[in-house]
Design brief:
By secondary structure, this protein is of the alpha/beta class. The protein has a single domain, classed as UDP N-Acetylglucosamine Acyltransferase, domain 1 (3 Solenoid). The protein contains two helices and 20 strands. The longest helix has 24 residues, at 145-168. The protein is globular.
Length: 198
C-alpha cells in the first residue's frame, strides 16, 4: 500500500521489499535491501522519512513526526516488531527492540542497542555504542564487540529477506492437514542468551 500525498510519491529501491499490508505514504525514501513488514505505517505526510540501505522496519512499527521534521534511519538500522519512531534519528547499525518508543528529536548514536519495551524521551542525545533499557530508558553499559557482531549477523538475515521474499513469497490457500513430507527449517541464528551460554 504505497500512497502519494500532496505531490510527494514514495521512492523505493527495487531491491527492497514492502509488504502489501504495510502503508507507506508521501515523502518517504527507502534505500536498497530494506525489509518493511506487514502492519508497518511509514507516514511521510508532515515531514520526510529516509530509510537508508539495509534497514528493516518490522511488523506493526510506526514511523512519523511533527510537521517539518525529517526522520532518519541510518544504514543497517534494525527496528523490532511494534516499535514507534517519532521524529528521531536512528544511528547506523542500531537495534531498537520490540515495542520500544523513540521520541522526538532523539539522536541515537551509531551501534546502540535499545532493549524491548524501552522509552527514550524527547531530545535525548545518546552516545554511540550505548545499551539502553527501561521506561524511561537509561544507559546501563557500553555495547561490546561481541554484542554488535550478534546484532549485525541478525540484521544480515533481514538484508537477505527482501530478495527471498521477491523470489519465494506468494499468496496461497492453506493446507487442510499437515503433509508427511513437510521439511524442517534450519536454525539460521542464535539468540543473545544462547550465545552467552556458549
Amino acid at each position: 500500500m504505497i500512497y502519494s500525498f500532496k505531490g510527494f510519491i514514495p521512492v523505493v529501491h527495487p531491491s527492497s521489499f514492502i509488504h502489501p499490508q504495510a502503508a507507506v505514504t508521501g515523502n518517504v525514501i527507502i534505500g536498497k535491501n530494506v525489509y518493511v513488514g506487514p502492519g508497518a505505517a511509514i507516514r511521510g505526510d508532515w515531514g520526510a522519512i529516509v530509510i537508508e540501505d539495509g534497514c528493516n522496519v518490522q511488523e506493526n512499527c510506526t514511523i512519523h513526526m511533527f510537521p517539518g521534521v525529517t526522520v532518519l534511519l541510518k544504514e543497517s538500522a534494525h527496528i523490532g516488531h511494534g516499535a514507534v519512531i517519532h521524529g528521531a534519528t536512528i544511528g547506523r547499525n542500531c537495534l531498537v527492540g520490540m515495542n520500544s518508543v523513540i521520541m522526538d528529536n532523539v539522536e541515537l548514536g551509531d551501534e546502540c542497542i535499545v532493549g524491548a519495551l524501552s522509552l527514550i524521551k524527547a531530545d535525548e542525545k545518546v552516545p554511540a555504542r550505548s545499551l539502553l533499557v527501561g521506561n524511561p530508558a537509561k544507559i546501563i553499559k557500553q555495547v561490546s564487540d561481541e554484542m554488535i557482531q550478534w546484532k549485525t549477523d541478525g540484521t544480515r538475515l533481514y538484508q537477505a529477506l527482501p530478495g527471498e521474499m521477491q523470489s519465494q513469497w506468494t499468496p496461497c490457500e492453506p493446507l487442510p492437514e499437515l503433509p508427511p513430507d513437510r521439511p524442517a527449517q534450519s536454525a539460521l541464528y542464535k539468540t543473545w542468551n544462547d550465545i552467552r551460554k556458549g
